[in-house]
Specification:
By secondary structure, the chain is of the alpha+beta class. It has three domains: about 50 residues, Uridine Diphospho-n-acetylenolpyruvylglucosamine Reductase, domain 2, CATH 3.30.43; about 120 residues, 2-Layer Sandwich (Uridine Diphospho-n-acetylenolpyruvylglucosamine Reductase, domain 3); about 100 residues, CO dehydrogenase flavoprotein, C-terminal domain (Enolase-like, domain 1). It has eleven helices and 14 strands. The strands form four sheets. Strands 4-5-10-6-7 form a five-stranded antiparallel sheet. Strands 11-12-13-14 form a four-stranded antiparallel sheet, with helices on both faces. Helix 9 runs antiparallel to helix 10 and helix 10 packs antiparallel against helix 11.
Amino acid sequence: MRSNVLQYDLTAPATLEAVLEILAYEPGEYTLIAGGTEIMVALAAGRLAAKKLVSINHLQELRFIAVTPEAITIGSGTTFTDLRKHPVIQSDFPLLKQAASWTGSIANQNRATLGGNIVNASPAADTPPALLACEATLTLVSKRGTRTMPYTDFHLGYKKTALAPDELLHSIHIKRNLNGYIPYTRKVGTRNAQAISKVALAALCLTAEGVVKDIRIGAASLQDRPARLTATEQALLNQPITPATIAAARAALLTETHPIDDIRSTAQYRAHVAANLLEEFLLSL
């Protein structure tokens, strides 16, 4: 049953500072709305619990991509279309470009934001595996100040994050230190486009003379949150890529992941496909 819009309050402050004032005045009482692609679905389904909404979609302070020789910083209000079209993201961060192209329709990509995809905290979200593999860091802001954290520390459980009630996600920071890394990303869904993932992997690997020198693997739909597969990485680190190493990595992945049965897939299917995707990547090296 569709929600009654008259039961909701929406405010749209002119500046980021004004938004932070509202969040500080009544911590936890307001829900931020950027692109609104998730919130409007919840509203239409009659399950949007939040009654007080703050629009930040119009804030240019949050919609930017800043590039230096060392890193790229992406404002949380940056859309997926912005990500897909940016030349540095296309050249330096193909995992993120691909993830942005997977997210919904073109209309969705014009509205949906990177910050919203992160803060919504869906275990099946498209961009988190790429951000985990790229070892992104997040900048959070409030009236109390600014703090930075590794993205790996942000997701605490199903739909739970480290974001305080008076904070918002300001930006995402990724170092441009991936020369020589081989990228890999695959998403398995019901359709080729506009589908929530059954399982997805994003990985970066640096090899020398057939030995894995560094590897980073991010996953979607394999735990109760977006996950970095550290045990699987450890099974591969400093190892030659042999059938025995691949078998050990598959075993590690199956041990550290905990997929669920739901309307889109089964836990058994997710685990088996994820292991196959990992093997596909390793054989490609």
